[in-house]
């Protein structure tokens, strides 16, 4: 707890306190829905011995606020202040462009009570759509302003605090001898030590399960410390030739409910891996390269700075600053400058310094290896491993039309799409899934959800199921059930039921599952 002081006043003045809280590595917050991140405690003499904190819920404070960031001002329970203390307050999440998301409140606080906003900012807004604004250098900035006492402010305090989320990247090779001789559910874990700290960090198990004649290869990665959380994992087979084959990855950083990714199946089945062994990918001993990211709790959380200012001096300084800003006219100067997006689009349009080509059946499209690797893990593997694309500097794309490739490249360079329609969105979604361009996939999915109609619902359901897009699939199924009379009696649904009876039956079953849940 930190208590900045200032000269005592002879009468009861008006107070203003600004508490600025920066949270570093914010996107690695491990908290589930209902779990909170608490700021350092703060107080000042004018708060009559009351002590305060902010509570931020990265995935919402309740089921009703899932998908949102919740923020509250708390009065601590064990302190010596009066039983009731009235303050007017403002809670904000600040953006780099100067705009903020704000909530205003006025409350009488008891010991241990709290007040604030259940849904201050959408997670997707902060983590995806406006990440550059809300998370510069992955730091979220939260501000709480408090006013109490007389209406005229005579005492001003500013307090700055910083909290850092601990993050550790762990890369290791998991060796499994006599892989073809493994027996089901035999985990045989290995212990992984930190490369930077002399301690164990992970337990790694490769095993397979056998259910109804289907053998599934599983990879279990469990942190040793209870407060450590696995948030990202990527698994590759290291072949005898030196090449790497992707066996699947997962992360839960953008999940609104933070799914558990510790024990997941690999993308290759047991049968496929045994076949790979026979083909000489590996001989007897299976080598898996595992790349993981853990959150390790709070690295530190502390008050860094406090400033006491007399209000007349502060007002004069602010007035001088405002006049200086007016003379400088920063907004006009910034609007005249090129943004990073403008410059990247210019590079894309001018096609200078290109060093790789996309080749369709009829055209070639120049591009830049560095940017492709940054935007797509699939392109990165193509252009950095010992594959034909690296040697020829040509990426063949025979399954995409020229217009689709043009739009794909435009998005890779600018995050923008022009003249998006249903047909082009379907083709771009296919490309996004194939090349693991997650942002493009989300943009296309959002377009589908906004523009879905009765006539295209069946087509969209099949596509979502084919690409294992559970979120889009659930949204389409919800739409179908809300329009069941028109859709279940249509020729499109009859065709879907004939070609994919399991998908049709599961969708129709959801209707009765929802009814039973309601009843």
UniProtKB/TrEMBL annotation:
Domain BTB residues, every copy: 354-418
Domain of life: Eukaryota
CDD domains xrefs: BTB_POZ_ZBTB_KLHL-like (cd18186), MATH (cd00121)
Pfam families the UniProt entry points to: BTB, MATH_2
Domain MATH residue range list: 16-146
GO BP terms, alphabetized: protein catabolic process
Protein name: Speckle-type POZ protein
Organism per entry: Larinioides sclopetarius
Lineage summary: Eukaryota, Metazoa, Ecdysozoa, Arthropoda, Chelicerata
């Amino acid at each position: 707890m930190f208590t900045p002081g200032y000269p005592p006043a002879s009468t009861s003045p008006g107070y203003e306190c600004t508490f600025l809280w920066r949270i570093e590595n914010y996107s690695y917050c491990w908290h589930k829905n209902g779990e909170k991140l608490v700021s350092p405690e703060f107080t000042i003499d004018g708060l009559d011995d009351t002590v305060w904190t902010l509570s931020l819920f990265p995935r919402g404070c309740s089921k009703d606020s899932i998908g949102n960031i919740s923020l509250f001002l708390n009065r601590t329970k064990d302190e010596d202040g009066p039983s009731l203390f009235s303050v007017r307050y403002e809670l904000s999440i600040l953006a780099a462009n100067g705009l903020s998301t704000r909530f205003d409140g006025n409350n009488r606080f008891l010991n241990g009570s709290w007040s604030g906003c259940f849904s201050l900012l959408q997670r997707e807004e902060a983590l995806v759509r406006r990440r550059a604004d809300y998370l510069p250098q992955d730091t979220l900035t939260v501000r709480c302003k408090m006013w109490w006492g007389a209406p005229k402010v005579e005492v001003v305090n500013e307090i700055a605090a910083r909290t850092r989320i601990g993050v550790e990247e762990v890369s290791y090779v998991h060796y499994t001898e006599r892989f073809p001789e493994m027996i089901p559910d035999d985990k045989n874990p290995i212990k992984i030590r930190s490369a930077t700290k002399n301690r164990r960090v992970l337990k790694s198990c490769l095993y397979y399960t056998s259910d109804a004649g289907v053998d599934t290869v599983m990879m279990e990665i469990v942190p040793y410390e209870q407060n450590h959380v696995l948030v990202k994992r990527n698994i590759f087979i290291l072949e005898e030739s030196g090449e790497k084959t992707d066996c699947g990855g997962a992360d839960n950083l953008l999940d609104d409910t933070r799914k558990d990714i510790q024990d997941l199946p690999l993308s290759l089945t047991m049968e496929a891996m045994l076949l790979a062994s026979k083909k000489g990918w590996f001989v007897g001993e299976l080598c898996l390269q595992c790349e993981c990211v853990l959150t390790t709790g709070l690295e530190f959380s502390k008050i860094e700075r406090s400033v006491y200012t007399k209000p007349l001096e502060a007002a004069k300084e602010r007035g001088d600053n405002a006049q200086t800003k007016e003379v400088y006219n920063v907004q006009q100067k910034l609007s005249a400058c090129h943004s990073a997006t403008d410059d990247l689009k210019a590079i894309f349009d001018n096609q200078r310094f290109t060093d790789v080509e996309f080749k369709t059946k009829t055209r070639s499209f120049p591009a830049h290896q560095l940017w492709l690797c940054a935007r797509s893990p699939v392109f990165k593997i193509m252009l950095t491993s010992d594959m034909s694309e690296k040697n020829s500097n040509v990426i063949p794309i025979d399954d995409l039309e020229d217009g689709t490739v043009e739009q794909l490249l435009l998005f890779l360079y600018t995050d923008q799409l022009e003249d998006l329609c249903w047909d082009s969105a379907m083709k771009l979604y296919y490309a996004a899934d194939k090349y693991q361009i997650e942002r493009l996939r989300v943009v296309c999915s959002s377009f589908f959800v906004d523009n879905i109609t009765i006539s295209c619902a069946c087509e969209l359901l099949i596509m979502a199921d084919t690409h294992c897009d559970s979120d889009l699939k659930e949204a389409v199924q919800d739409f179908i059930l809300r329009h069941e009379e028109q859709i279940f009696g249509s020729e499109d649904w009859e065709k879907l039921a004939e070609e994919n009876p399991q998908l049709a039956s599961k969708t129709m079953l959801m209707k009765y599952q929802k009814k039973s849940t309601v009843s």
